[in-house]
Amino acid sequence: MTIPTLLQTGLATRLASRTQTLTSQTSGLAPSHLQANLIVLPQRYASDFRLLCQRNPVPCPLLAESSTPGSFTTLTSHLRRTPSSVPIPLASDIDLRHDAPKYLIYRDGKVANEVTDLASHWEADHVGFLIGCSYSFEDALASAGLPPRHTVQGRNVPMYRTKLPLCPAGVFTGGTYVVSMRPYRIEDVERVREVTRRYVATHGEPIAWGWDGARRLGIEDIRRPEWGDVSLTEDGKAEFAEGLEEGVVPVFWGCGVTPQEAVMRAGLDGTVMGHAPGHMIVLDVKDHEAFDEVSKV
Amino acid sequence: MTIPTLLQTGLATRLASRTQTLTSQTSGLAPSHLQANLIVLPQRYASDFRLLCQRNPVPCPLLAESSTPGSFTTLTSHLRRTPSSVPIPLASDIDLRHDAPKYLIYRDGKVANEVTDLASHWEADHVGFLIGCSYSFEDALASAGLPPRHTVQGRNVPMYRTKLPLCPAGVFTGGTYVVSMRPYRIEDVERVREVTRRYVATHGEPIAWGWDGARRLGIEDIRRPEWGDVSLTEDGKAEFAEGLEEGVVPVFWGCGVTPQEAVMRAGLDGTVMGHAPGHMIVLDVKDHEAFDEVSKV
């Protein structure tokens, strides 16, 4: 795959998606640029969805939304360095209908089909929301000598449903966290926590780690992620398939697929849309523009 | 008890606590005024604690903190009507060491003693944090014809430990939600949700309700709250003691005792202090000054 080496910026990645040159997952593309999950809802659900994000900022960190209902090219940013600072613009040339490599369409709370663009589905009362993605801190992990294994292997991150309930908000009841998983050596977990801590708008530090953590999340089979690729060991075997790899444990972060799950649980009427898990919209803003200095680690 | 009828304002309630005229719980006092939980930590834990609140805004809505380390009379407010508006001042004459009716002192992660003021314990590097309290919306519930039963009975709200994990933040790992419980008729739960929804900085709408909700929270015995008073039926019997009261279910909100539990789990060094559960610091700001219009219910 040669495309990724060319896709060093958010704009290049969005344009490649827009022209359908890029239809694969985006982990590792445009290093240090923020990546975003997309969820698109009928306007009548927008205020409840904002509240869902406000009450569950770790799995659902709201970065931006359509500046007016129906808008897919102008966004109101909610990303601030501090609560009192001005919002940071996210992207100068963006089209929410085309700029993810792949999308899912939901009808009556179920996945109806997978598409490469939303042009024929987007209606005048649709509101698009961008949610932070943990791909945004993978470059920082690599720079700290802790590259996520799936990026080294050019695979998608494994994602899991959990039994950890979201705080409900209006119509959004019964939802649970979705998490992404990256395996690390036990002795590296504290540094992994420190490196990712400052990325508050892209899930921040892990929510759980180790086998105790997996159990508390209610993950029944670590070898079977609901989305993304099965994690492989450095030898290319299925991770955790033959008992524990010595000294390696799963580390779990909040995941921006959570809102799509919440939408399914809520059984909303009408057409709901989102990116396909792992196939993100990449933004212009870079991590050092959005977050405080790197922790001293 | 005649005191409560005199205590119609935040200042009156704080002065009564300050002079030790008031040493009982504060539910129902100073109707429509915001009430706050207190947690006081050595400065070295302050940034991790802020992050804990940011990641867990439903149980830990951060209202304000000491404006400088050691300060107990001047606060920096974090309470805003909207993310971009200016912070709302909380109280003009406040002393965090004296203005709760009762306090707990923690040493080495355990409750060491209960005191009526913190004057002899507060050190130069202590930082005080005020966290929103669900007493703040009880007046709104009463105005909507849904008075919480414990306020009608002049009792403290029952509070429970749960198994619902907090999102960890720095040294704060292993914490779980604490919840307050108010019984309501099943058919009133949606209105109760609507009335409390706008109180985003004082726990907002419930996080769980019904017997399914209690089970998801891991509450083993609804008849035995860890803090506060056992809930009574309208006939004065122990609530839920003899099977279910027909049509009545428990409704659970995030509770500001959560940070004190988180501190105990984290086993922090040094002296940590908090209000005694139910014995809050009452503020000058009123609910209509802090939150959007009452939902149309």
TrEMBL record, chains A, B:
SUPFAM superfamilies: PSTPO5379-like. It comes from the Eukaryota. GO terms for biological process: glutamate metabolic process. The keyword Transport does not apply. Pfam families: D-Glu_cyclase. Keywords: Lyase. GO terms for molecular function: D-glutamate cyclase activity. Belongs to the D-glutamate cyclase family. This is DUF1445 domain-containing protein. It comes from Cercophora newfieldiana. The lineage of its organism: Eukaryota, Fungi, Dikarya, Ascomycota, Pezizomycotina.
